[in-house]
């Protein structure tokens, strides 16, 4: 259901519960909407299924931190897929890529770069929260 809403609803990210109720959605791209949500309520996505247009290591870290049950990404990086699977999160994607590129497709995405050397998802989340607090 989350995937269908993502693909048909013009959304960038959507989260549904087990009863297929939309709990969270945003048309804003990037990880900022998820960061804003989780900074205010860490439990907001717990146990939900999330679909996102692009899932890199930054988004994967946020979804792990939030305790989601499953993730679908239209595009997902190798690192994100590995992180999610290691945490036991159901993982689906349309296309897997080595890393997420910036909007101009000339280099690595800034958020992917910010968390690239993190060893643990909590470290990634801490960096993302600090970045968006500024």
What does this protein structure show overall?
There is one protein chain. Helix 3 (57-66) runs parallel beside helix 4 (78-86). This protein is 40% helix and 24% strand. It has 6 helices and 5 strands. It has a single domain (2-133), classed as Cytidine Deaminase, domain 2, CATH 3.40.140. It has helices at 2-8, 32-40, 57-66, 78-86, 110-115, 121-133, and strands spanning 13-16, 22-26, 49-55, 70-77, 90-97. It is globular and about 35 Å long. Helix 3 (57-66) links the parallel strand 3 (49-55) and strand 4 (70-77). The model has no long low-confidence stretch (mean pLDDT 94). Strands 2-1-3-4-5 form a 5-stranded mixed sheet.
Keywords summarizing the entry:
134 residues; alpha/beta; Cytidine Deaminase, domain 2; 40% helix
Layout of helices and strands:
Blueprint: H1 2-8, E1 13-16, E2 22-26, H2 32-40, E3 49-55, H3 57-66, E4 70-77, H4 78-86, E5 90-97, H5 110-115, H6 121-133
Largest sheet, spatial ordering of strands: 2-1-3-4-5
By secondary-structure content and strand pairing, the structural class works out as: alpha/beta
Fraction of residues in β-strands = 15-25%
- In the CATH scheme, the class would be Alpha Beta
Q: Give helix and strand order, one letter per element, not per position.
A: HEEHEHEHEHH
Cα-atom radius of gyration: 13 Å
Coarse morphology: globular
- Biggest beta sheet summary: 5 strands, mixed
CATH homologous superfamily label: Hypothetical protein TM1506
Mean pLDDT across every amino acid position: 94
Distance between the termini: 35 Å
Number of helix segments?
6
Give the domain tally: 1
């Amino acid at each position: 259901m989350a995937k269908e809403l993502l693909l048909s609803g013009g959304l960038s990210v959507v989260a549904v519960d087990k009863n297929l109720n939309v709990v969270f959605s945003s048309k804003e791209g990037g990880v900022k909407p998820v960061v804003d949500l989780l900074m205010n309520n860490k439990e907001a996505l717990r146990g939900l299924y999330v679909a996102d247009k692009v899932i890199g290591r930054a988004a994967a870290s946020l979804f792990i931190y939030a305790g989601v049950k499953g993730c679908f990404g239209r595009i997902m990086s190798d690192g994100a897929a590995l992180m999610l699977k290691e945490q036991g999160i159901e993982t689906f994607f349309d296309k897997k890529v080595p890393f997420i590129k910036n909007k101009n497709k000339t280099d690595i995405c800034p958020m992917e770069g910010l968390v690239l050397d993190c060893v643990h998802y909590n470290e990634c989340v801490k960096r993302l929260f600090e970045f968006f607090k500024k």
